[in-house]
Amino acid sequence: MNVQHHYQLLLRREMGQLINTARSYYREADRQVTQVDQLRALVTQKDEIIAARDETILHREDQINESDHIITQRNTIIEFLQEQIHDLILEADDAQAHLEELQQQPIPPAAPAVLEAEEEDPEEIEGVSEIDSEHGDPVISPHHSSSASQSSVGNFDDF
To answer: CA geometry: angle at 18 spanning 17 and 24, to 5°?
Structure first.
């Protein structure tokens, strides 16, 4: 019996060690399962964050595309307005040059002479009497030649 008892003792001790080892493995496996579950939860959480960031990125890309479209439209408008401004500047330059050209041209002497003649009394004109100016064409004085009587309107050199 001694052998059997010794066998029983060894068996119990080995079984205890085996149970302790199994429990240790179980605890380690349970700890690793808990870690895996925590990591899965963390991965799921990170996936949700990534999905939210992807959505934000897509939204911002849409905003960027809209902004690019608006910028392109505004650039087109700006180019059109710049062309119009350029055309207007050219027209203004042409108008300014035309004005300068008109200002540099001499004023015809006939225009002021007409104003002066209207201010004069009919008696002051040589060879024309008061009666002639009231009743029709003026009588040409004998001082004038026949070619001078063919004068044009506004030419007072004949008088």
So the answer is: 90
Examine the pLDDT at 108 and tell me if it is beyond 70.
Answer: no
C-alpha neighbours within 13 Å on the C-beta side of residue 6: 3
Q: Give dist(CA 89, CA 93) in Å, integer.
A: 6
Spatial separation of the C-alpha atoms in residues 19 and 25, rounded to whole Å? 10
Locate 22 and state its tokens: 């199994």
Structure tokens at 121: 């009394």
Give pLDDT, residue 83: 97
Give, in degrees to the nearest 5, the angle at Cα 94 between 88 and 97: 140
State both tokens at 153. Answer: 């309107």
* Number of CB atoms found within 10 A of residue 47's CB: 10
Q: Are 131 and 115 in contact (CB under 8 A)?
A: no
